[in-house]
Design goal:
Strand order of the largest sheet of chain B: 2-3-1-4
CATH class of chain B: Alpha Beta
Number of strands of chain B: 4
Order of helices and strands of chain B: EHEEHE
Oligomer: heterodimer
CATH topology of chain B: Alpha-Beta Plaits
Helix content of chain A: 55-70%
Structural class of chain A: mainly alpha
Largest sheet of chain B: 4 strands, antiparallel
Strand content of chain A: under 5%
Largest sheet of chain A: 5 strands, parallel
Number of domains of chain B: 1
Distance between the termini of chain B: 7 Å
Radius of gyration of chain B: 11 Å
Strand order of the largest sheet of chain A: 2-3-4-1-5
CATH class of the domain at 4-203 in chain A: Alpha Beta
Distance between the termini of chain A: 52 Å
CATH architecture of chain B: 2-Layer Sandwich
Structural class of chain B: alpha+beta
Helix content of chain B: 25-40%
CATH topology of the domain at 4-203 in chain A: Rossmann fold
């Protein structure tokens, strides 16, 4: 697709967390123009950089910060890594991926063990720790220059940089080039003498420097005139530079400069207009047009002007030091200050042209640039057909639904009206609706797209057809139709063969999503083994978004097969995969939380189950999750003695095309439990024996109902039907053993009964399954009250016998749902040492507010509200 | 909220177009941009826009309603 030298990106090289190749221009030290004036006094300050952890070059736009840093960096090859932080708004993971790449490009050897951020939005703390450790082992420090650091507005990135800087000391030095005060605790560095600061006042030109600069432009001025010019420009580098350029073109430069001094227009505006009007018409046109671009190469500029002279013009402009900066690899950018002013001029001179320029940029980038930039320009042009084409053609349709870019992409496309009805825009509309849970509204555009694509000749638009089949699989899953899901998935697999392998290699997500949707549909249909196969394949890809969903479904499978402990572990893994900054609940997290609620109910931890049930749901609204929500809600209400509420929950219809055997069975169990509790065993028996499904838990429930109805013979027959196969987990076997025990009691065999209860206790204990014992009936408690069974029940099912030291009775606190982050642990450790919030902040070199944020999040994870409790809980859990 | 932002120098009409949501008036070597500011994010955005256009902000104040 892309030609590396034109895109500035190497498609075969390493990629950022979104799968886009790194933009090489972000790592290039800007080239110095011929008229650059080296100022030794400032370079001298920068020479301090390797001796101090932090250097800040801060000043207004056009103060000459970047060129100063570039001059210094170019003189220290092999020891300086350069990064232009333009991607900082694309997420923490992206930022760190770029910074790691910058270090590697500078020759810093980092082992593979350091790893790479897997997601755009976040970076593993362990990765930063490993990075700091490897850097700290260096003999000579590497200096990382981060230009445009003002783009870093996420305080967490600042904290993370700080962390690495401090722990890697003295292996890494940081030079931040920024327009705004960096979000770092500078005062602390100042107090420790650990920061070099080069600020606006120092960047301002002195009279001698100004005279020299003007001379480089061929202007010789007497000292008083230079001073007057400095007063007008306040030593502002960009102002002086433009002055010189404007005066160069004037008939009498000195008179011209006098006029400039007297003029009262804002400097940048005035000078830029002056310099611009002295350029040839073609040059002016090109400058105005490229002002819509972040960066450009001659070919892209030509695409905007419709001419073929960009290369010549750009080289010339760069040589004259007018407007254009050379990023290397034949890429350029406008000086940010001039770019904004030029854009104002473009709007004034050619109203409406901006849209057309964005459209042309998108069209050019579509074939040679990264997807993100293409989409931004297409959206800015309002060319939604092109934007949707680019997204679908790049196999990125699924990213609208899940993944690091989902929110950004949904935001971008939310501005799309009902307008163009191409297959691609219809697919995007369908995906957007599906992501919001609007299945009904998704189907019409999806069908429209399918029909339009079917009419096109085979082979064309393979990516769009594949995207369509993928969405149809998802839609089938959401309508609860496994048959349709199978058909659509088979079609998708067939279409995938028509897509170029290179494109598929770059995008492993669609395949994983396909398996996830297929697995979820099979799970709904109760085809456990096939569901497990598809879901395991999806989880194994390691891409976070599909993995979280797949793990959540696998967790439900485990629970349905009676293994609450296994289900809990998988649900927790799903939640940690789904961890995601932002308000939306990512797909998968909702189901995982419901599985945890089910496990909490099995353990009779009802408050925890209720809290988990109250957690917000994800927007997808698929039948598996909805059914599980109704079932768990019913079980918790039943446990609370709210039979009416339980019946109401069991009555909730989940709309689906096919019925789900397990959803029906478990709903029936809830309803039967309610009827049994209300003394209506006949109804319970009827509910549980009517569907011919042999769901083991239903057989157990039916047997209990028969016993309650006084028909032990029927009960025995039902219990004998429970298959003796090995996959059944303790949830089933414990229930079955208790029902058998009740039967033995009814048949007058107390020894057999005790034996079965003992077996149930032994199997339930490791999983802490308390619920089956609580609902077994009035016959059980007297048995448990006497030895030897009491010994088996004490400490987890029954209160333990108090020991002399009073430690016997342990109220088991809820287990941790989320792991503490490294930073939260740092804060907790200090909390345990009785440090105040302020002291912790000072010790960790972060702000008090940051400490409070970490504390709050640690409290939440530990389910406590006070620092004392937090320390106690953390000790109990062995975290300190 | 209404705000007034006073910047150094006289803004040309072209550059004033970079602030379409504000009115402006030029007074003796200064320009005052004024108008309704939606929220704090908008306010900081305006400041950043001044900065990126190389304008020197001399004063910024909330105007009476």
């Amino acid at each position: 697709m892309g030609v590396p030298d034109e895109t500035g990106a190497d498609p075969r090289g390493p990629a950022d967390p979104c799968g886009d190749p790194f933009l090489r221009t972000r790592f290039a030290i800007p080239a110095l123009p011929a008229t650059y004036l080296r100022r030794e006094r400032l370079l001298g300050h920068l020479d301090e950089a390797p001796r101090r952890p932090l250097t800040v070059v801060g000043g207004a736009a056009g103060a000459g910060k970047t060129l100063l840093a570039a001059d210094w960096a170019a003189a220290h090859p092999g020891r300086v890594a350069w990064l232009t932080a333009q991607m900082a708004d694309k997420g923490r993971g992206t930022f760190w991926a770029y910074l790691l790449q910058a270090l590697r490009l500078a020759g810093v050897t980092l082992s593979d063990g350091v790893g790479l951020p897997a997601e755009a939005g976040r970076v593993d703390e362990a990765l930063l720790t490993r990075l700091a450790a490897e850097l700290s082992a260096r003999e000579t420090p590497v200096t990382a220059v981060i230009d445009e650091y003002d783009r870093v507005t996420d305080p967490e990135i600042a904290d993370q940089l700080e962390f690495v800087l401090r722990h890697a000391d003295p292996g890494v030095r940081l030079v931040l080039v920024t327009r705004t005060e960096p979000l770092l605790p500078l005062h602390r560095y100042r107090a420790a003498g650990a920061v070099t600061e080069i600020r606006n006042d120092e960047l301002a030109f002195t009279p001698a420097e100004a005279a020299e600069l003007l001379e480089l432009h061929g202007l010789r001025l007497p000292a008083d005139e230079v001073t007057a010019l400095l007063a007008r420009t306040r030593g502002w580098a960009a102002g002086l530079r433009l002055c010189a350029l404007a005066a160069q073109g004037a008939a009498d430069p000195r008179t011209y400069l006098k006029e400039f001094e007297a003029d009262r227009t804002t400097i940048g505006d005035f000078l830029l207009a002056e310099v611009l009007k002295r350029q040839r018409a073609e040059t002016q046109d090109l400058l105005l047009r490229v002002s819509v671009l972040d960066r450009f190469c001659p070919a892209l500029a030509d695409a905007l002007t419709g001419r073929a002279d960009a290369e010549l013009i750009l080289t010339g402009l760069h040589r004259e030091n007018a407007f254009v900066e050379d990023l290397g690899h034949s890429w350029f950018r406008l000086h940010p200050l001039f770019r904004d002013i030029l854009r104002a001029h473009l709007r004034a001179r050619h109203p409406g042209l901006e849209t057309e320029l964005h459209r042309r940029a998108a069209a050019w980038l579509r074939h040679s640039g990264p997807l993100g930039e293409t989409l931004e320009h297409a959206a800015a042009a309002g060319d939604w057909a092109a934007a949707a084409d680019a997204l679908v053609g790049d196999l990125a349709l699924g990213e609208l639904l899940t993944g690091p870019r989902a929110e950004t992409l949904a935001d971008l496309f939310s501005a799309m009206g009902p307008g163009p009805g191409t297959p691609a825009t219809d697919l995007v509309r369908a995906a957007l609706e599906l992501s919001r849970g609007g299945l009904d509204r998704a189907l019409p555009p999806l069908e429209r797209a399918a029909r339009a694509l079917a009419a096109e000749p085979a082979g064309d638009a393979a990516a769009a057809r594949f995207g369509c089949a993928l969405l149809r699989t998802l839609a089938a899953r959401l309508t609860g139709s496994s048959a349709q899901a199978e058909t659509a998935a088979r079609q998708a697999v067939r279409l995938r063969r028509e897509i170029p392998g290179r494109l598929l290699d770059r995008h492993p997500e669609p395949a994983a999503l396909l398996d996830t949707h297929l697995g979820a549909a099979r799970l709904w249909a109760g085809r456990y083994a096939e569901a497990r196969a598809a879901l395991t394949a999806a989880a194994d890809t390691g891409r976070a978004a599909p993995t979280a969903q797949a793990l959540a479904h696998l967790a439900l499978l485990d629970h349905l097969e009676g293994h609450p402990g296994r289900a809990e572990r998988r649900a927790l893994a799903a939640l940690s995969e789904a961890e995601h900054p932002g308000p939306a609940v990512p797909p998968g997290a909702g189901l995982a939380t419901l599985v945890l609620a089910a496990v909490a109910t099995d353990r009779d931890e009802l408050e925890r189950a209720e809290a988990l049930l109250a957690a917000p749901a994800d927007a997808l609204g698929d039948p598996v999750t909805e059914a599980q929500r109704a079932i768990v809600t019913g079980r918790v209400r039943l446990a609370r003695g709210d039979t009416e509420g339980a019946l109401e929950a069991a009555d909730r219809m989940v709309l689906a095309q096919e019925t789900s055997p397990w959803a029906e069975a478990h709903t029936a169990l809830v309803a039967a439990g309610a009827h049994l509790a209300e003394g209506r065993p006949e109804l319970a028996v009827k509910l549980l024996t009517e569907p011919p499904g042999g769901e083991p838990l239903c057989l157990v429930g039916a047997a209990r109902a028969e016993l309650a109805a006084g028909r032990p013979a029927n009960a025995a027959e039902l219990l004998d039907r429970i298959p003796a196969h090995h996959g059944l987990g303790p949830l089933v076997t414990v229930g079955a053993a208790l029902a058998r025990a009740q039967w033995h009691g009814a048949e007058g065999d107390p020894a057999g009964q005790r034996g079965l209860v003992a077996r149930a206790l032994r199997e339930a204990r490791p999983e802490r399954l308390r619920r089956p014992f609580r609902e077994a009936g009035p016959w059980l408690p007297p048995l448990l009250a006497a030895l030897p069974l009491r010994a088996l029940a004490e400490g987890w099912l029954l209160p333990g016998t108090p020991r002399p030291d009073g430690t016997g009775r342990v109220d088991e606190p809820p287990p941790m749902v989320e792991e503490l982050s490294g930073r939260e642990r740092d804060v907790l450790v200090r909390l345990a040492e009785m440090m105040s919030t302020e002291e912790i902040a000072a010790d960790l070199y972060v702000s008090v507010n940051t400490v409070k944020t970490h504390l709050k999040s640690a409290y939440r994870k530990l389910s406590v509200n006070r620092r004392h409790d937090a320390v106690r809980r953390a000790r109990e859990l062995g975290l300190l | 909220m209404r705000y007034e932002i006073r910047v150094d120098g006289e803004l040309t009409e072209t550059l004033a177009k970079a602030f379409p949501e504000l009115d402006h008036v030029v007074v003796s070597g200064h320009t005052i941009l004024f108008g309704r500011v939606l929220d704090e994010a908008h306010l900081y955005g305006l400041l950043a826009r001044c900065q990126s256009l190389g304008l020197r902000v001399l004063e910024m104040r909330q105007a009476p309603q």
